[in-house]
UniProtKB/TrEMBL annotation:
It is a multi-pass membrane protein. GO terms for biological process: lipoprotein biosynthetic process. It is an enzyme of class 2 (transferase). It comes from the Bacteria. The chain crosses the membrane at residues 23-45, 65-85, 105-122, 129-150, 185-205, 212-229, 241-264. Pathway: Protein modification; lipoprotein biosynthesis (diacylglyceryl transfer). The gene is lgt. One of its GO terms (cellular component) is plasma membrane. Catalyzes the transfer of the diacylglyceryl group from phosphatidylglycerol to the sulfhydryl group of the N-terminal cysteine of a prolipoprotein, the first step in the formation of mature lipoproteins. This is Phosphatidylglycerol--prolipoprotein diacylglyceryl transferase. It comes from Bradyrhizobium pachyrhizi.
């Protein structure tokens, strides 16, 4: 074994245990991601200069929206995994669809669930759909980052075989004897840190004044980041590689990029709200 090869640091999958109450790292990532996203969203809504005037959503409305978006993430994420990644299994074992503690969530399904939540809540509360979509996607990389870290801690969704000379190649306990890319960390960096930073800079430059610009940028950048990450990630075993070496994650990201570019183009052509942001 090469000197620099890293053995995966085995973590306890249970983050917190209080008697009969057991919270796993994956569930904790969802909880913390939603709470931190809610705090960040509140800070953005309070800064009128970012919107060119009062934000189109009030703080009480945001507080109510948290429940809607949480349901959208969970229902959409699970439904997407069932339909896109393991439908034959769940047709044969329908009772396991509700067993979320066993894992199995799809980002693309969760995203569609969030879209549904945004559209329904916006219509019910007379809020501009694109602006609500902007604030939702501005905070989404926080949850993505924590979710990928939870994937790493759980030793799941690991990467493809790597050159043993790669300094950070790892031997995952359930990934066989060969070294692999820690692709969960790659995705945490791309889908979490890089995406969050890019959107934060755009917001600072006044992107929220053009409804849909942050939403479209999130969709596009995530799609590109996901495709890059999929080049290092081992495909789900029940699917493997699809046509031409493509993976399901890649295929689902292509329409996201197309839709994102369309939304960006429309937003850029739309007149911005209010004055340019202050440089102070």
């Amino acid at each position: 074994m090469p000197f620099l090869l890293i053995d995966f640091p085995v973590f306890n999958p249970v983050a917190l245990s209080l008697g009969p109450i057991v919270i796993r790292w994956y569930a904790l990532a969802y909880i913390v991601g939603i709470v931190l996203g809610w705090i960040y969203a509140r800070s953005l809504i309070k800064k009128e200069r970012l919107w060119g005037g009062p934000a189109p959503i009030t703080l009480p409305q945001l507080d109510d929206f948290i429940l809607w978006i949480t349901i959208g993430i969970i229902v959409g994420g699970r439904t997407g995994y069932v339909l896109f990644y393991n439908l034959p299994f769940f047709i044969a074992h329908p009772g396991e669809i509700l067993e979320l503690w066993k894992g199995g969530m799809s980002f693309h399904g969760g995203f569609l669930g969030c879209v549904a939540a945004v559209m329904l809540f916006a219509r019910r509360n007379n809020i501009p759909i694109l602006s609500l979509g902007d604030i939702t996607t501005a905070v989404a990389p926080i949850g993505l980052f924590l979710g990928r870290l939870a994937n790493f801690i759980n030793s799941e969704l690991w990467g493809r075989h790597a050159d043993p000379d790669l300094p950070w190649a790892m031997i995952f306990p359930n990934g066989g004897p060969l070294p692999r890319h820690p692709s969960q960390l790659y995705e945490a960096g791309l889908e979490g840190i890089v995406l969050f930073a890019a959107l934060a800079i755009m917001i600072r430059m006044g992107a929220l004044k053009r409804p849909g610009l942050i939403l479209g940028s999130f969709i596009t950048i995530y799609g590109v980041a996901r495709i890059i990450g999929e080049h290092f990630r081992e495909p789900d075993p029940q699917l493997g590689f699809l046509w031409g070496g493509l993976t399901m994650g890649m295929l689902l990201s292509v329409p996201m990029i197309i839709v994102g570019v369309i939304i960006i183009t429309t937003a850029v052509r739309r007149r911005a709200n209010g004055p340019a942001p202050s440089s102070t």
